[in-house]
Amino acid sequence: MKKFTIPCNFGGTKSPFTVYIGEPEQRHHPLHFQSDWLSKERGGSIPGDVMDAIAKLKELADKNGVSFEDLCVYALQVASEEDANLNATKPQENFDALNATTENSEENSGG
């Protein structure tokens, strides 16, 4: 069983919430019981995009005969790396955009 922290909705506010992913029953969504408990006991909800992504990962794991838990860990690692790469390029992109704006302003003002 693997432990994940995901942003969940609590009355319009997002807060981190821990969920556990293992090998679920075939007839239920992998987070069905945790989502149900979160709603009834804490008044929260797991976002639909998270539920959809987990369902797709379960489908892929079943289709390819791989561990659902391991696939979730892998997907999270890839997503984290992509976020890190995206965030690492943003300051340079912002700087380039600022320079382009500044250069265009100077050209337009005759400077």
How would you describe what is shown here?
The protein is flat. By secondary structure, the protein is of the alpha+beta class. It has helices spanning 32-42, 48-64, 68-108, and strands at 2-10, 13-21, 44-45. The N and C termini lie far apart (63 Å). The protein has one domain (2-108). Mean pLDDT is 84; it is low at 101-107. Helix 2 crosses helix 3 (68-108). A three-stranded antiparallel β-sheet has the order 2-1-3, with helices on both faces.
| Helix/strand order, N-terminal first | EEHEHH
User: Which percent range describes the beta-strand content?
Assistant: 15-25%
Which class do the helix and strand fractions yield?
A: alpha+beta
The major sheet is characterized as:
3 strands, antiparallel
Residues in helices, as a percent range: 55-70%
Total of domains: 1
Overall mean pLDDT score? Answer: 84
Briefly summarize what is shown:
This protein is of the alpha+beta class.
Topology, pairings included?
Elements: E1 2-10, E2 13-21, H1 32-42, E3 44-45, H2 48-64, H3 68-108
Antiparallel strand pairs: 1-2, 1-3
Helix pairs in contact: 2-3
What key attributes describe this structure?
111 residues, alpha+beta, three-stranded antiparallel beta sheet, 3 helices, 3 strands
